[in-house]
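Margin note from the TA: students keep mixing up input and output lines. Inputs are the sequences; the output is the structure of the whole complex. Example:
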Amino acid sequence: MTPVWLVLMLATGISWWLATGAYSSAHDSRRLATTGVLVIALIKGRLIIRTFMEVDRAPRALRFATDAWLLALGTALLTLYL
Amino acid sequence: MSSRAAIERKPSARIPGETGLWVLVLGDLTVFALFFSAFAFYRSRDVELYQASQATLNRHYGVANTLLLLTGSWLVALALESARNRLPSRAARLLVLAIGCGSAFAVVKYCEYGEKVRAGIGPATNDFFMYYFVLTGIHFLHVLVGLGLLCWAFVRLRGSAAGAEPRLVLLECSGIYWHMVDLLWIVLFPLLYLLR
């Protein structure tokens, strides 16, 4: 559990860096930073679901449902933000 | 990490907590996904207003609350591990720390709301702040419910003797609910505070 927590804290730091430091006025770098922040949020979400919520040991239906939620949300947000 | 997960994996898959709880969790996640998408949709139609409003938020509050919820989730997961290893008093101590993290989140949020209200900003200010107050408000209610569940699990843990077979369902369920609160914030935080 502790390595997962460390990865989550580190990922939050990277998001912070991307959002405060890496955004520049250049269009491409904005897209890159936005994509990075959103993808990191989805990875963090999946880590929480799979390890803390113990879905990695759950029946396939629950693993599928939670992945489908992440995929649908990620697609919607990336489409609307980029 | 993956090899360790493979070793720890039980031979038969089981639903963590209770099936009924997962109906609630998946329903809640779906509703929030629709809220998040609606926010992103209306933002895409008026990016300048959303960016200008977002710039007035204090990102330090947002990141502090993210770290508090992540740490709280970790502590709850450790508490469950301890309870399974028949160490209820250690589990109870970890739960107290987790409840502390959740309470600190509530205090930070309270300060943040206070600053906004004193500056004359409310849900009626504009579309961004309508979403800001509604989304964080509903999330805040979830935090309070989650804290209530963790306190209940704590009281039950303290009642069980060391070495006894603990009844874990309540702790598992309140843990899953608490992790869901964390998960929702993980998406809410970049949408409201980070993405420009």
